[in-house]
Records
---
Amino acid sequence: MRTLIYNIGTLAGILPQGKRMLAGREMGSVGCIDRAYLIANEGIIEEFGEEECLKGKAQDKSLFDRRIDAGGGYVMPTFCDSHTHIVYAGCRDGEFRDKIQGLSYEEIAARGGGILNSADLLHSTSEDELFRQAMVRVEEVMAKGTGAVEIKSGYGLTTEDELKMLRVIRRIREVVPIEVRATFLGAHAVGRAWRGNQEGYVDLVCREMIPAVAGEGLAEFVDVFCDEGFFTVDQTARILEAGAAHGLKPKIHANELAVSGGVQVGVRYGALSVDHLERTTDEEIEALRGSTTMPTMLPGASFFLGMPYGRAKDYIRAGLPVALASDYNPGSSPSGDMRFVMALGCIRMRLTPEEAFNACTINSAYAMGVDHILGSITPGKKASLIITRPIPSLAFIPYAHQTPFISEVVFG
Ligand code: NIG
Ligand code: FE
């Protein structure tokens, strides 16, 4: 099946083969061709260029099985969302009221709400029902232009329920046309049965959960909520070691609530990404220099919880890359809208539209291990594309962030 997309106003997000991410000043530009075409073969980008080079080919019906008129809009890679908790049961709209009344995320958690509240709900929800609820959200984000999503467990907090969540993620992966990657986050909070015995719970994560998850091949990554009131640096190191022994690569939650040491321990264990970073000092920036770890910021959580935004500009000035992701979850970011994430990146973190674009595409592809197949317009990558309505510029996407901008999304 060969598809031609023609009448493209601007083809945006072009990168050469082998470019895995963009760092520092490179983040400030986006490769574009005006008045372009793109040809995909069996769902893979085959070639693209200026439309005038097509000559008569566009009209030759025998050359293409499908022809898509982009209507003069932009064609760009779909968003990659490298950090979500999109599989959960019900929602936490009650805590939303508590939050409005002035309770902090930590106070809600300390009262047995928060993650434990979601774990109780998940426990009493069947696997089929959990799948159904999660699929509604996955379809929602696909319609908003997300072509890859990382999904974490972490609302199970018992071996059985963690496996239930991860099996739901596997089922999602089997039925959707987008890329799905799974992360085991047993150390999201201490399960209720282990209250007062956090070390015992960490033992369970290391000795029972990780071998069970790896045994069924249910995850590629292991994550730990390394933060004040959650897991310590030493506990995190133990869990990452156990994960590594079972082939799971680390991704870390760090510095959301306090400067936690999570970045440093993540870098030490070769984490693919360290995420949140709302409370970063210069030491975190130093720790990341020369590493292969992607600093990932989640402005939707800063927005929803009224927390500081990550210092993305300082990271970029230091020559580092930055990725942005939604953190879609019921407690700190009940939205998976990557266009809104891009807008917050610009409006609240002062990223340029180009930096925010790269943070939501190629860099977030890297942060979830799919940069070889997604995240840019590159021959050989999956033709996972957003075709926009005619818009005046790339900046229009985060600028007029509530104006519908998508005409069509294709996933290969
Ligand atoms: O990334 N920080 C930890 N985990 C989630 C929140 C989970 C929840 O509150 O349900 C986050 O913000
Ligand atoms: Fe998270």
---
Amino acid sequence: MNSDTQSLAEAAEHLLKDRLENAQDVCVTSSFQAEDVVLLHLVRAILPRVPVIFLDTGYHFPETLAYRDRMTAAWNLHLINLFPEQTVAEQETQFGILHQTAPDRCCGLRKVGPLFRALADFRLWVTGLRRQQSKSRANLQIEEPFTLPDGTSLTKLNPLADWSTRDVWHYAEYHDIPLLPLYDRGYTSIGCAPCTSLPLDPDDPRSGRWSGRKLECGIHLQPS
Ligand code: SF4
């Protein structure tokens, strides 16, 4: 691991140790992308059984689900699969293919609603968000307040906010952490299969999400 990544890793370890050691009601959200798995590697050294929330939308790549299950078994994770109120079949029967016609609504039903309801049980939410991921994350802070629609206040901790993609890869390689095999096919940001393509702009890792129609699913946007 080079010295820059080493310094960032030590800073993240220090922050997590300080904030998690005596904390109650902590959770981590994970899509099992590279930064989320690096984050889990750091967090589980302090809280091995921290709840790890995965948004099981029903639209994920089979490779993502297989990798999630492999890492969960290998690291004995306390995985919480969050399901939407409707199955994919029920939603498509009632509303049609929302990820084509109204992706914000689809994300609302399958990601944002389930997550915000679940987060009401926690006070500290740890994420693998990074500023470099997208222009929509350029002002990300390492620690931020977050208020759920029901008024519940949480602290959101983003220990990797300063990390580059290269830092994430260096850390994973140094610690022998296997990554989601879809990266080997050229994907640089991986979510639900219908809304994930190879990047349209090589300099923008999230440019393959939603075919450029939107940048965020909504779980990281402060509800108004
Ligand atoms: Fe629906 Fe696409 Fe959002 Fe997944 S990412 S919840 S498929 S719109």
